[in-house]
Write a structure and sequence with these properties.
Layout: H1 6-29, H2 39-61, E1 77-81, E2 85-86, E3 92-93, E4 96-100, H3 115-121
Antiparallel strand pairs: 1-4, 2-3
Helix pairs in contact: 1-2
Length: about 120
């Protein structure tokens, strides 16, 4: 395991956690206008946005917002080429997956639930 600094942790939180908070907020309102959601979901999205902004503001304040590498030389993100995929129009392409790398060098790929998965696990 690679050693890393507290600032590296802030870089990771800014990149990874902030992105995940944004995805969760997007999953909640799925392109709907936020003011058309029930009040509890409006509040949840607002809270997620506030958390993301707090992390980003702290990262910017400490100069950790745009780092491409951690202090130990580990890159902050990596790219994988996935298996060839054919879209509904019959066009085949090689999708790219970009993911954040933990300062220890571990790659953590988070699965984003489909709307069906999300709705099956939430109760309103």
């Amino acid at each position: 395991m690679q050693e890393y600094t507290p600032q590296d942790s802030l870089v990771y939180l800014n990149r990874s956690v902030s992105s995940q908070l944004e995805v969760v907020a997007d999953l909640i309102y799925e392109g709907e206008e936020i003011d058309t959601l029930p009040e509890n979901l409006q509040n949840a999205v607002s809270l997620l946005d506030s958390l993301r902004n707090e992390i980003r503001n702290e990262a910017e304040h400490h100069g950790a917002a745009r780092a491409a590498h951690y202090s130990n030389g580990v890159p902050t993100s990596t790219r994988f080429d996935d298996a060839p995929t054919t879209d509904p129009d019959g066009e085949t392409y090689l999708p790219e997956v970009h993911t954040d790398v933990h300062p220890s060098g571990n790659v953590r790929v988070f699965s984003i639930p489909t709307n069906k998965d999300l709705l099956n696990n939430l109760s309103f």
